[in-house]
Design goal:
With 112 residues, this protein is mainly alpha-helical. It has one domain. Helix 3 runs antiparallel to helix 4. It starts with a helix and ends with a helix. 4% of the residues are buried.
Amino acid sequence: MNNKQIMYPVDVARALKMSSAGGPAFSLSDFYKTHGIKGFVSQGVVPELVKSSSMRVSKFFFFPQFCNLFWGRAPSKCSPLEKGLAGAVATVPEILMISPMVRVIFSSLIKS
């Protein structure tokens, strides 16, 4: 688990607090009272963490694979242009992997 995953719920709380400026104040306890523990999942916090983690894992898995496939070298031995091209191609499986997750996230947010 990295720092971004740990701090993401805090960032969501900060964004919710900022969006309620001028209206009733936002607090996690009020959110919990309103939505319960299920609200943290149905309102997008846990699914977003799963999606972000999957994106990061796929990016770091596929990038070296494509460097080796295209140029037969490790990323540390590739030029910046070669790294850029391998990184661009590595986003294709990443997108294919997270697209179903994004659909689930959006459909769960629309239903609630």
